[in-house]
Amino acid sequence: MARRALLTPLERAEILGLPEDPDEIAALCRIDEADMSLIRQRRGDANRLGFAVHLCLLRGPGIALGADAGPPVAVLAQLASNIAVSPNLWSEYGAREETRQEHAREARAYLGLTAFGMGDFRNVVEEIESVARQTDRGRVLVETAITSLRRNAVALPAIEVIEKACAEGLTRATRHVHSTLSGPLDDGQRARLDALLIRRSDSALTQIGWLKQAPARPNARSMLEHVERLTAWRALDLPWPAARLVHRNRLLKLAREGGSMTSADLAKFEPRRRYATLFAMAVEGVATVTDEIIDLHDRIIGRLLRAAKNRHDASTLASRTSVTALMRTYSQLGEALLKARETGEEAFSVIEKVIGWKTLAENTAAAKELARPEAADSLALVSAQFTTVRRYSPAFLAVLDLHAAPAAVDLLAAVEILRQLNTAGIRKIPDTAPRSFVRARWKPLVFTDTGIDRGFYEFCVLTELRNALRSGDIWVGGSRQFRDFDEYLLDPQDYTTLKSAQQLPIVTTDGNPAYLTARLELLTQRLARVEHLATDGKLPGVTAAGLKITPLDTIVPIQAQPLIDATSGMFPRIRITDLLMEVDAWTGFSRHFTNLKTGQPSKDQQLLLTAILADGINLGLTKMSEACPGVSYAQLDRHQAAHIREETYSAALAEIVNTQHRHPFAAHFGDGTTSSSDGQRFRAGGRAESTGHVNPKYGNDPGRLVYTHISDQYSPFHSRLVNVGDRDATWVLDGLLYHESELEIREHYTDTAGFTDHLFALMQLLGYRFAPRIRNVGETRLYTPTRTHDLTTLAPLIGGPINTATIAQHWDEILRLATSIKTGTVTASLMMRKLGAYPRQNGLATALRELGRIERTLFLLDWLENPELRRTVTAGLNKGEARNTLARAVFFNRLGEIRDRSFEQQRYRASGLNLLTAAIVLWNTVYLDRAITTLDTTQAPPAPELLRYLSPLSWEHINLTGNYTWPRTTHKPGRYRALRHPTNP
What is the pTM of this model? Predict the structure, then answer.
């Protein structure tokens, strides 16, 4: 197996690079009396300087000075100054190689280091092999090797030697992975894997190409096709437990590598690698298709329930005329009967005279029909969809390996009964069938005078199964997203070890319940204070009656507008291609788009940037190849498959965000410690329409949501493509925990949809201040540590006491959950989604909700008391809304619709858009700085306090449309475009 280069040239320079900061250089070159005594023993100033260099490099980074190597000029000058010699003497040092080697040996002996030898090389290879079985990231491997050598007091050899040892360890680890997966395969299993690469008889696709297809639409036909795919994956009958012997990272990397190749490329692999790759693809394929089947079921049931509700609403609207007519008729009859009672007229004759007996009978029948209990609930109308459900439910229930928690045992038993009835072809549901899971709404429909209604019972089971899968009360073998809840969390023994060592990575490192006591005491104090202020009418901007909050003044003062207009008019006009090229020259973000197989950056920068731009402006590779001269679709497609992935997008985004964060002018916008997040909906059109989800909040059109986190410096440091049906609060923690930038966020803002009590609890435990802007604060409940009657003014807002006993009972479960999220054992969004779907009686979900009520009440009390907090949160959210406007302008092609069927391609669209907006923010920040500097020299300098109101989100000066051509020469750092004059744009 050919060895690939592990490090890029820049990484080689960074890993063992010497500092450039004067303070760091001074620390590196520190010479004490013992060092000086040893240095003076050398004969001649040149030798003294050379020996000092050996000593400095070996003690600092641990580098052995190479034969032809020398230290940086700044380091040499500092050392020469420390020992009082001239740095020019370096050219005279080491004329004899023996002298350099002798000095190196003496310096090592003095520092207690040994020289790097073949034994150390073999030790590094063995240690790296074990690490490389978990990850093949070159930088991680090399840094692990360096740490090992330093731990063993071995002087570091040249970086090329370390890289060679790591490459050998990686090669051995890769062979081990291949052997682990391919070794247990018998001849029949190998033959079935080879058959995956053969074209199907009924289509132009190979078998594996068909198996990798995403579901087309949320309907019975797509479900049956996907069940067939899962059945086909399982029919390979592979030794599935062997996959657990390979680390998840390596297994996923192997599967992704195979997924990016054609069947012809896979067929050319040597057998061991080919079978291992196909095995990894099969493991991932089973999990992916299983999750997609469950998602299809979720969407089908949701669509059928929505259709029933829409028909019910339409029927209710249509019946209004009949109801009005009936009310008019009966009101006339009632008046006539009341009058007849007064006059003594006979009632029957009145009825005959007013409406007649025939009309009365018809109206009574109509009223009875309208008053039927089932007519008041849309569930009765799902009976029209029984045929759709029956088309796929037998295959759906049969193919899933379902398991249940105690709360869902009856539901799983009901599923098993349906399976048995489907197998035997029996229609009638036995009277002994489980029924405890049937909710009150379903009971009149499911349980009838003639027994259990099969259609409604089956639909009810499928609906409750959907809910139980969401919450985790039922989990599925072979799934990634629907596993047993406990499997997601940190191992109990590991949690206990961390807690005993007081090393929990959360705010209470020892897990002591005293933390909870302190929060309750603080809540008691804050409630008393705000009650006192509210009673005296001293809550700023808050009206005591109903606790209504006066709207804030305009965020941007009128004095700042002339400065905003002047600076925005000075931006140079620029094409988006030039902007992207210049930002890459400043940051080098393109180097993070490494080749999936070789780990090296792209050799064709323009081709890579073209593929990124195709994602960011939503043009797509086909249209981009037509709009970009000299580029073909095939070139873009190959480059995208090799270099563009979620992890490369994330690394490149972090590079741009870090550069903007470090720019001095960004400090005017904020210090990078606060952020906000919001979701932006894009319609799913074309082939993607069937993959989109519907949320009544956005109408009836299917769509996708891009949930983005933006710092107070305007940089969008994290984004994720999510379903529009998920509450925003599900995704808040992901952006704070898993972004790769240098930002250290401590406070975060969201709008009303971005908070839940569960999120309040976890945000506090994970060390973040959470400050959502809650709509209708007067309708939001406050909670007290105990039942109290002392809060008279706040009484209308009090929702009751906090159940502290439940929190205490589940305290360790809460801490284990928070620790699991913090350590990356499980993603926060997955846990938030499951906790939100749990039934109210679930202990952990209830306890976390009660803990969240403490934190939410503390926040609301701050919100009432502190108008500056309200102003800060509003300003932070306004930045996010302004960034969404920029994103909408950039994502203009295809009418702003996401039209790719593949979820992976849709994610690329969202990531490309976020990277492009981050590049625009950085470019604008740089030129805002230049504009302000120019204004300082041409007129009275602007007031410093007004600079915070400038924004790097404008795009009027950027040409986003037309042919996408790239500049012939690379833009050099330090050279900038001329600014426009504000009066002559």
Answer: 0.79
